[in-house]
């Protein structure tokens, strides 16, 4: 199996970190630049996006949540990531949405500069509401799951791209504690944004 990825994509990091959490060491990493329409990536994903997962028989999956679901369902090893618990799935929707918002904010800023302030402010407000909800959720318990993996990477991406002021994240003590508690997990420390 081959995972197409790059070093700054939070989505690709979620797919890669999932594979690491599941000990799927046989997946080959194929580093590409999705922004330059590389022929190699276009063959597997005509939309030129990462992550994309190609299996040995040539079948391809795109879209992060479909990829991670496939990896988890087909892994031989049992894992905290394997759950059908509705609470985890609900959390995952919010955490993945936060990742999307932070990514959209970053790409907008890169390509459109300071224009579109109304839209960018809306994204930031939604992100803050997501942070508030997740602050309450992790304050209840710090257990690990697929939604928490997604949340951790979303938080790291917000910091990496400076989507919100550092001071804003400091307003969420439980999220801060959660972030610190898991930062040494191999699947996270070995996949830092680059
Ligand atoms: N909804 C997609 C988002 C994937 C995505 O937007 N990937 C970005 C990198 S973070 C990309 O490859 N962008 C290239 C482009 O849009 O041309 C998923 O969940 O996989």
UniProtKB/TrEMBL annotation:
Gene3D superfamilies: 1.20.1050.10, Glutaredoxin (3.40.30.10). This is GST N-terminal domain-containing protein. It comes from Paracoccus liaowanqingii. InterPro entries: Glutathione_S-Trfase_N, Thioredoxin-like_sf. Residues 1-79 form the GST N-terminal domain. SUPFAM superfamilies: Thioredoxin-like (SSF52833).
């Amino acid at each position: 199996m081959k995972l197409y990825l790059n070093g700054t994509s939070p989505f690709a990091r979620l797919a890669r970190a999932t594979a690491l959490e599941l000990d799927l060491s046989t997946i080959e990493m194929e580093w590409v630049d999705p922004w330059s329409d590389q022929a190699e990536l276009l063959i597997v994903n005509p939309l030129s996006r990462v992550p994309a997962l190609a299996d040995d028989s040539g079948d391809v999956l795109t879209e992060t949540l479909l990829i991670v679901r496939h990896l988890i369902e087909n892994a031989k090893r049992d894992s905290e990531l394997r759950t059908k618990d509705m609470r985890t799935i609900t959390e995952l929707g919010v955490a993945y949405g936060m990742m999307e918002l932070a990514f959209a904010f970053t790409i907008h800023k890169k390509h459109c500069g300071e224009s579109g302030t109304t839209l960018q402010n809306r994204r930031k407000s939604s992100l803050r509401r997501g942070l508030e909800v997740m602050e309450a959720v992790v304050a209840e318990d710090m257990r690990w799951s697929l939604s928490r993996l997604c949340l951790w990477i979303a938080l790291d991406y917000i910091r990496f791209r400076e989507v919100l002021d550092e001071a804003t994240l400091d307003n969420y003590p439980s999220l801060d504690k959660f972030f610190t508690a898991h930062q040494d997990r191999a699947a996270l420390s070995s996949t830092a944004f680059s």
